[in-house]
Amino acid sequence: MNMNFQDNIVRILRSESLMFFVATVWAYYLIGASWWMFVVLILAPDIFMVGYLKNLKLGAMVYNIGHTYTIPFVLFGLYMLVYTPILLPVSIIWIAHISMDRMLGFGLKLDSGFKHTHLGEIGKKQ
């Protein structure tokens, strides 16, 4: 099997995302939050695709805002600072979503098209 360096990097990033996904599901289990909430909210960050209704550039920007770890970690930090209990499961679910997406090859979007990501083209055989 002849793999180039970039393919190896993508495989490493996707396997790393698998570990993050497993860790977040385990953390969610440990906090004892509702699994119904998990099921309902696991796809909620995909609402950030709404920017694609306008154009590719705005779509990629808005999608990427919702699919970086920044917002869920800010929510986790707020949970730690002000102890608002709902923020803990929401932040864990959001991190799980991002990890699940990247594990499956749905990376951060480039403004050249929805299928073009930092992990390569969605659907392209590796």
If you had to describe this structure to a student in words, what would you say it looks like?
- There is one protein chain.
- This protein has 5 helices and 3 strands, in the order αααααβββ.
- The chain is mainly alpha-helical and 126 residues long.
- The chain has one domain (8-31, 41-121).
- The protein has a 3-stranded antiparallel sheet, with helices on one face.
- It is globular.
List the topology elements.
Elements: H1 5-31, H2 35-41, H3 56-66, H4 70-82, H5 87-103, E1 109-110, E2 113-117, E3 120-121
Antiparallel strand pairs: 1-2, 2-3
Strand elements, count: 3
DSSP helix fraction: 55-70%
Low-pLDDT ranges = none
| Helix and strand run | HHHHHEEE
Class inferred from helices and paired strands? mainly alpha
Specify Rg, calculated over alpha carbons: 16 Å
The DSSP helix count reads 5
Number of domains: 1
Strand-residue proportion = 5-15%
For this structure, the quaternary state is single chain
Strand order of the largest sheet: 1-2-3
Q: Summarize the biggest pleated sheet.
A: 3 strands, antiparallel
Average pLDDT score: 94
Large-scale geometry:
globular
Quick recap:
This protein is mostly helical and 126 residues long. The chain contains 5 helices and 3 strands, in the order H-H-H-H-H-E-E-E.
Provide key terms for this protein:
single chain, 126 residues, mainly alpha, 60% helix, globular
